[in-house]
Automatic annotation (TrEMBL):
Gene Ontology terms, MF aspect: methyltransferase activity
Gene3D superfamilies, alphabetized: Vaccinia Virus protein VP39
Organism per entry: Brevibacterium picturae
Keywords linked to the UniProt accession: Methyltransferase, Transferase
Protein name, UniProt field: Class I SAM-dependent methyltransferase
Ranges of residues in domain Methyltransferase type: 75-175
Database matches in PANTHER family: METHYLTRANSFERASE (PTHR43591)
Domain of life from the UniProt record: Bacteria
Matches recorded under SUPFAM superfamilies: S-adenosyl-L-methionine-dependent methyltransferases
Pfam families in the cross-refs: Methyltransf_11
GO terms for biological process, alphabetical: methylation
C-alpha cells in the first residue's frame, strides 16, 4: 500500500505508457528507497506481527479468508516487511514470503531481530524474488495470498496469477487485496477534492512518475473489476467471495488517498478470495 509520501526526486507524474521491465525496475527502486521511511510512518498501524488486509484496518482474524492455517504451507506474494507472514507463523502456519524489494526484506529481517516470535512459532522464510517468476516447484503451497503486494505494480498481472496457480496445490486458496478499481477515477487525495471524478474508469493507462533525469521511478497499473474476474477465471481460479470493506468508524487514520471521508462514500479496497480448480 503506497501513499506517495516518499518520492522526493519526482518532477512529474501522470498517465503514461510504460513497458513491463521499466515498471518493475521503477517500483523495485521505489520500495528499496522508501522501505525504512514507510515502516517508520505506517509501522504502528501495520504492527510487527499483524495481518492487515487494507488501510481500512480489516484484520485476517476478523474475516478468516485464508481458513485454518495451522501447519499449512502458505506463500505471501509481495510480502514487504513480512508482518502478515509473521502473524500466520504465530497461528501455526509454515509461511514463506517473497518480495522484489531488497529494502523491504531488510525491514523484514529487522522485525525478526527486534520482535522475535514465540518459541512455538516457525519463523517465516523470506526470499528476494520476482512474483512473475516464483522460485518454487509446482504444487508447493496450500494457500497463497497478497495484501496489496506485487499486483498493482506489474503491467502483466496475468503472469503473476499464472505463477500463483502453478505453485498452489489444486483446491488451494488464493486471496489478495488491491486498490478498488473505482478509486482510479478520483484524484489520490483524502479530502473533498478527492470526491470528484477526473479520470475514466475504462482508461487502463498506468500512472507513472518521472524523476529529474527522465526515468520512471514509480508505476501503478489499473484493472477494472471485469478485468480481475476474467484474469482469475482464465488462470484457473473459482471466485468464492469479493469483499469491498466499509470504512470502520473506529479507524480515523488517513492513509494517502484512503480516508474516513472517502471511505464512508466508496470502497478504497477490494479483496478477492478464490479457490484453485482441481481439474
Amino acid at each position: 500500500m503506497s501513499d506517495g509520501s516518499y518520492r522526493a526526486e519526482v518532477i512529474s507524474g501522470g498517465y503514461l505508457p510504460i513497458d513491463e521491465e521499466a515498471s518493475v525496475r521503477a517500483n523495485r527502486g521505489y520500495w528499496d528507497n522508501s522501505a525504512e521511511e514507510y515502516l517508520a510512518e505506517h509501522g504502528s498501524f501495520l504492527g510487527a506481527s499483524e495481518f492487515m488486509w487494507c488501510p481500512e484496518g480489516i484484520h485476517e482474524s476478523d474475516v478468516n479468508l485464508l481458513g485454518d492455517v495451522n501447519r499449512r504451507q502458505i506463500l505471501e506474494v509481495g510480502c514487504g516487511a513480512g508482518q502478515c507472514s509473521r502473524w500466520l507463523a504465530e497461528e501455526g502456519a509454515i509461511a514463506t514470503g517473497v518480495d522484489v524489494s531488497a529494502g523491504m526484506l531488510e525491514q523484514a529481517s529487522r522485525l525478526q531481530r527486534e520482535h522475535p516470535l514465540s518459541n512455538e512459532a516457525t519463523p517465516p522464510t523470506f526470499l528476494h524474488a520476482d512474483a512473475r517468476q516464483l522460485p518454487f516447484a509446482s504444487n508447493s503451497f496450500d494457500v497463497a495470498f497478497s495484501s496489496y503486494g506485487a499486483l498493482p505494480f506489474v503491467k502483466d498481472a496475468e503472469v503473476v496469477l499464472a505463477e500463483v496457480a502453478r505453485v498452489v496445490r489444486p483446491g488451494g486458496r488464493w486471496a489478495f487485496s488491491t486498490t478498488h478499481p473505482m478509486r482510479w477515477m478520483f484524484p489520490d487525495v483524502p479530502g473533498e477534492a478527492g470526491l470528484t471524478v477526473e479520470y475514466s474508469y475504462f482508461d487502463r493507462t498506468p500512472y507513472v512518475e518521472i524523476s529529474a533525469d527522465g526515468q520512471p521511478v514509480y508505476a501503478e497499473h489499473h484493472r477494472t473489476m471485469g478485468d480481475w474476474v476474467s484474469m482469475l477465471v482464465s488462470a484457473g481460479f473459482t471466485i468464492d467471495s469479493v469483499t469491498e470493506p466499509e470504512w470502520p468508524e473506529s479507524n480515523q487514520t488517513a492513509w494517502g488517498g484512503w480516508s474516513p471521508l472517502r471511505g464512508s462514500l466508496m470502497p478504497g479496497t477490494v479483496i478477492f478470495s478464490t479457490t484453485l480448480n482441481k481439474d
